[in-house]
Structures are given as C-alpha cells and as structure tokens.
Amino acid sequence: MKLITAIIKPFKLEEVRESLDQLGITGMTISEVKGYGRQKGHTELYRGAEYVIDFLPKIKIEVAVRDDQTESIIEAISTAASSGKIGDGKIFISPLEKVIRTRTGELNEEAL
C-alpha cells in the first residue's frame, strides 16, 4: 500500500478530484496549506504599498491506495494538476505500513 500526497494549485482541485473519481478512488483527504518552492512567492500592491507574499496558497491531497493503483493515480493527478507553469506542485509517494478502519477494525487493503 502507498500514501500518495500531492500538492497542487487550488483551482486544479476539481479537475484532480474528477480524474481520481474516474479511477474509482472513493476517498481522499484535502487540506488547505501554504508554501513555496522555486517560485519563492510573489509581490503584490495593496493601497499603494508593495509587499511580498512568501507563502502561496496550495491544496494538499492525500490518498491511500493499493500498490497496483499507484502508477495510474500518479498519472491522473499529474495530468489533471498540470498547467505547464511554475508552481504546479509536487507528488510524494510513501509506503504505508498498516491501515486500520476505526469503525470495523478492518486491516490494510480491506480498510481502504
């Protein structure tokens, strides 16, 4: 099992969700986060004063999947989240040691 964590631009969330839905992914966790990568934020003008925004709004998506689903999900997220511009995000893949469904006690793939 794997935990796929994707950091994407907020306006790409619906496209990514629809893409994962087509693959039969029935659950995911979404968090509103802030961060920066190579783009290092940007400057804005407010009431005549210029200021720097270091941390940009992003969306963090977490999906726990079976090993055989990993590559297709990575491809789906990558395709849906890409705008071709800097700041599109990153995808991280981590091994999952154990998953437990709290309500039923089901373990691992049955709990997904």
What report would you give on this structure?
The chain has about 110 residues and is an alpha+beta fold. It has a single domain, classed as 2-Layer Sandwich (Alpha-Beta Plaits). The chain has 2 helices and 6 strands, in the order E-H-E-E-E-E-H-E. It has helices at about 15-20, 70-80, and strands at about 1-10, 30-35, 40-45, 50-55, 55-65, 90-95. Helix 1 (about 15-20) runs antiparallel to helix 2. The longest helix is centred in the last third of the chain and has 12 residues, at about 70-80.
Outline:
The protein has 112 residues and is of the alpha+beta class.
Key attributes of the depicted protein:
112 residues, alpha+beta, Alpha-Beta Plaits, four-stranded antiparallel β-sheet, two-stranded antiparallel ribbon, 20% helix
The description of the largest β-sheet is: 4 strands, antiparallel
Overall body shape: elongated
Helix count from the secondary structure assignment: 2
Beta strand %: 35-45%
H/E element sequence: EHEEEEHE
Strand order of the largest sheet: 2-5-1-6
Radius of gyration: 17 Å
Q: Helix/strand/pairing class, anyone?
A: alpha+beta
